[in-house]
Structures are given as structure tokens and as C-alpha cells.
């Protein structure tokens, strides 16, 4: 018979890359060791029978601004990773800016690792940064295990992380191509951005038009094609970007792109205050429909939070002056599920967009799916239960979110990290390097 497994979790609705199946997921040593028939579960030290409650793979959020060290009063590893686990996210990848120092060389990466050590409730990886003057640091960052390097093509909002011009972007892409790394880009053309000219959301929206996003995306595509580099566009908000991305992929350019829950579930017509401000901006409802279609068509590979919190005092009523960033790490799954279900998508689609796609992007081959050999990162999820979002009950550090008061479907019951339920009294998250588990 052999030794019993450490854990077996059964569900008649286990969400795998092949779709929903009745399965018993057997775990040994934190890894999915076997997928067995639901009605024939193997012996285990511990077991859970979810019945008809779906079992999802732990989500992978490859776009999170943790901000620690330096701006830990905005967010920190302990609070961000609690929010992640409560929302069914078992792996995050931290962005290189908004912390001090920014992660633009190996020394800064080590400072950030030290800040994260022992504080993470989920597994955590790191992006490096590409800024003017640090071209020689990109390969060492890659060799130190970052998932890739991020650049801005327009002002980032913080002075210590300046943007790259066209020549700087070309040089960074050529350097990344030399070691077959990955460059991810905030793509807005600064020449097409303008002063909002007023405090209202309509003023802010007009100041960051779709054309600015599309032009910058086209620049990344052209230079990726020229250099042969692998590139990725973060947080696509504009439907105008879809066709250039579609054409580039058809032509064999190594470019991918993501979008975010707020671009898929919110609309400019419903913006009521600065909690909704982000860059690029939340656009109109018709634009949102085109992003959903791009996901369905595979032009956009995934959905990630771009969780970018700040202290409440920075979210001033003047949209021109307010900090741009959405806090949604804990509610991304129910927000997306509520909208996806209404559009006829299933849980397997959501898992592909929010777990498998981001894991593949970040170079984490053992994350993002329920399959033999992968980490046993699992989520018991009730897709029919509804709740009203109350920011006071969310785990991220500052009580600001545009989802406050929203009625959403989908409740996380249990999150397992490598086969063990997350316990907020005992941080068990590992610090990840690219390709490793």
C-alpha cells in the first residue's frame, strides 16, 4: 500500500488545466504527488472533502507593489501577503519601485530580501528594475534570480525610479536579449500625456488617452522585434492596444501583455472618488468589453492586481494630485469571478488567467495549476456565496479600495500553501528565484 500521503483534498469540481474534474489531490512533501479519482481517495494523514465546493490552484499575482522597505507605511510584506492569502493568492511577485532603495541592483535586491525574510504568508518573488544608468546591473540581477526587469516609458511617480527614453529602452532590450531574460514595461508615451487641467476624473482621463498607451506599446513591439528580446506589457487598460499586440504575436514577436481586475470590472462612468485613480486610467465600459474579448482570444495572457496602495492622505479629492494606485489584492478573485461568470466564463478560465498565465510569465514552472509535480498551492472557493466588501476587514495596510461597498460573488474558504493551510500567526512563505520552487 505504501506510506500514506500527508494530505488529500477531494472535490467534485477540481479545476485543472483540462477543466473541472472530480478528483482527490494527494500531497506529499508540499508537492502534488498524485491526482486520484474522487471516489477512490488514497490514505492520508489529513484529508478534506469539499464535495461540490470547487478546488482552485493558488493564484499567482505577478504585479504587486509591496513598498517595503522605505515606504512600509504604505504597504509591507506581512500585510500584503496576508491580504494575498485571504484572497486565494499563494504567490506574489514584488515590483522594484516604491521601496527605498528601489530594486535596481543586486545590493538593493538583498536589502529587499532581508526585509521580506520571515514576514511572508505566501511565496514571494521579485522583479528588478531597468532605469537610466543601470544597464550593467541587468545581467547580475537576472543571475541573482529576479523574474525579469521592469521599466517605465513615462514618469513613474517616484523620483528614484526614472523612465527610459527610446534609446534607453532599445539598450535595455538588447542587453536582456543577450541573456534571454525578460523586460516588462509600463507603456505610456510621455509625449502624448498632458496636464489634466482640472480636478475632475474626466480631466484626468483625457490627460492619459488611449493613443498614449498604444504608441508606447507599438514602440516596445518594434524594439522587441529589432533586438529579439522577450518583452511584456503590464496593466493594459486601452482597447487600442489589442490589435497591435495581436499582430505582433502573429508575426512571432516575443511580446505578451496582461490586464487587471479594475480594468475589467470598473468603468469610468462609475468613478466616484480618488480610490479609483490609477495609471493608466480606468476607461469607459465599451473599452472594458474589448479587454474581455482580448482575454478570451488569448491576446492578453492574464489578470494581475497591480496592487499599489498608499496612505489615505495621498488619495486627495483632486484627481490630478491624488496618488495613482488601486488596492485590490484580496478582492481580485471575487471581483473577476463576478464579472467573468456574468459573461459566460468558467472557473477554468479564471484559473488560466489568474494562476497559470502569471506563473508562466514569471518563470515559475511549479506554480499556477493543479497537476502532478506542482506545488500543492490550493484554494477552496465558493463561487456562489456573496459578500459586501468592507475595507475595514481587508488585510492590506491602509483601508482604501474602490471596491468598498461592492457586492461580489466568490468566497475563499481555505488557502493551502504547499499543502498546509495558511496560518496568519506563522508566516511560511518562501522567497523565490526564477525557475526555482
Pick out its properties.
about 425 residues, alpha/beta, Urease, subunit C, domain 1, TIM Barrel, 2 domains, 6-stranded parallel β-sheet, 4-stranded mixed β-sheet, metal-binding
CATH fold node name of the largest domain: TIM Barrel
Number of beta strands: 17
| Name of the CATH architecture of the largest domain | Alpha-Beta Barrel
Shape: globular
Strand order of the largest sheet: 9-10-11-12-13-14
Helical percent range? 25-40%
For the termini, the CA-CA separation is: 29 Å
Strand content: 15-25%
Give me the strand/helix succession.
EEEEEEHEHEEHEHEHHEHEHHEHHEEE
What value does the Rg take, in angstroms? 21 Å
Mean pLDDT: 97
Sheet with the most strands, sense and barrel status = 6 strands, parallel
**CATH class of the largest domain, please?**
Alpha Beta
Domain Amidohydrolase-related: 55-421
Pathway: Nitrogen metabolism; (S)-allantoin degradation; allantoate from (S)-allantoin: step 1/1
Cofactor: Zn(2+)
Organism: Microbispora catharanthi
Describe the structure.
This protein folds into two domains: 75 residues, Roll (Urease, subunit C, domain 1); 304 residues, TIM Barrel (Alpha-Beta Barrel), CATH 3.20.20. Helix 4 packs across helix 6. The model has no long low-confidence stretch (mean pLDDT 97). It is globular and about 65 Å long. It has 437 residues and is of the alpha/beta class. 27% of the residues lie in helices and 23% in strands. Helix 4 links the parallel strand 10 and strand 11. The strands form four sheets. Strands 9-10-11-12-13-14 form a six-stranded parallel sheet. A four-stranded mixed sheet has the order 3-2-1-4. Strands 5-15-16-17 form a four-stranded antiparallel sheet, with helices on one face. The chain contains eleven helices and 17 strands.
Amino acid at each position: 500500500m505504501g506510506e500514506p500521503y500527508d494530505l488529500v483534498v477531494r472535490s467534485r469540481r477540481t479545476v485543472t488545466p483540462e477543466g473541472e474534474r472530480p478528483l482527490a489531490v494527494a500531497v506529499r512533501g508540499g508537492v502534488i504527488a498524485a491526482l486520484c479519482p474522487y471516489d477512490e481517495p488514497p490514505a492520508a494523514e489529513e484529508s478534506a472533502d469539499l464535495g461540490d465546493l470547487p478546488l482552485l490552484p493558488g493564484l499567482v499575482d505577478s504585479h504587486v507593489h509591496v513598498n517595503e522597505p522605505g515606504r512600509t507605511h504604505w504597504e509591507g510584506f506581512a500585510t500584503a501577503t496576508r491580504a494575498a492569502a485571504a484572497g486565494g493568492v499563494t504567490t506574489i511577485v514584488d515590483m522594484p519601485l516604491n521601496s527605498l532603495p528601489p530594486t535596481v541592483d543586486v545590493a538593493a535586491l538583498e536589502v529587499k530580501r532581508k526585509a521580506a525574510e520571515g514576514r511572508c504568508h505566501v511565496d514571494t518573488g521579485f522583479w528588478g528594475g531597468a532605469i537610466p544608468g543601470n544597464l550593467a546591473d541587468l545581467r547580475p540581477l537576472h543571475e541573482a534570480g529576479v523574474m525579469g526587469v521592469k521599466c517605465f516609458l513615462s514618469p513613474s511617480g517616484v523620483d528614484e525610479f526614472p523612465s527610459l527614453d527610446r534609446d534607453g529602452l532599445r539598450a535595455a532590450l538588447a542587453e536582456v536579449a543577450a541573456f534571454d531574460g525578460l523586460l516588462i514595461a509600463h507603456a505610456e508615451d510621455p509625449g502624448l500625456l498632458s496636464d489634466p487641467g482640472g480636478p475632475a476624473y474626466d480631466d484626468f482621463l483625457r490627460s492619459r488617452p488611449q493613443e498614449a498607451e498604444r504608441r508606447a506599446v507599438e514602440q516596445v513591439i518594434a524594439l522587441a522585434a529589432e533586438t529579439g528580446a522577450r518583452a511584456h506589457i503590464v496593466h493594459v487598460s486601452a482597447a487600442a492596444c489589442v490589435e497591435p499586440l495581436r499582430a505582433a504575436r502573429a508575426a512571432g514577436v516575443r511580446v505578451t501583455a496582461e490586464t487587471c481586475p479594475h480594468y475589467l470590472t470598473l468603468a469610468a462612468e462609475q468613478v466616484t472618488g480618488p480610490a479609483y485613480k490609477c495609471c493608466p486610467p480606468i476607461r469607459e465600459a465599451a473599452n472594458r468589453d474589448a479587454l474581455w474579448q482580448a482575454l478570451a482570444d488569448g491576446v492578453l495572457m492574464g489578470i494581475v492586481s497591480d496592487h499599489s496602495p498608499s496612505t489615505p492622505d495621498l488619495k486627495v479629492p483632486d484627481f490630478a494630485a491624488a496618488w495613482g494606485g488601486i488596492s485590490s489584492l484580496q478582492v481580485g478573485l471575487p471581483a473577476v469571478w463576478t464579472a467573468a461568470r456574468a459573461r459566460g466564463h468558467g472557473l477554468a478560465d479564471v484559473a488560466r488567467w489568474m494562476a497559470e498565465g502569471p506563473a508562466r510569465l514569471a518563470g515559475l514552472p511549479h506554480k499556477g495549476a493543479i497537476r502532478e509535480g506542482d506545488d500543492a498551492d490550493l484554494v477552496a472557493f465558493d463561487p456562489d456565496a456573496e459578500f459586501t466588501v468592507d475595507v475595514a476587514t481587508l488585510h492590506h495596510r491602509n483601508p482604501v479600495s474602490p471596491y468598498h461597498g461592492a457586492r461580489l460573488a466568490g468566497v475563499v474558504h481555505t488557502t493551502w500553501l504547499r499543502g498546509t493551510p495558511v496560518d496568519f500567526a506563522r508566516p511560511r512563505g518562501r522567497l523565490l528565484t526564477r525557475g526555482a520552487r
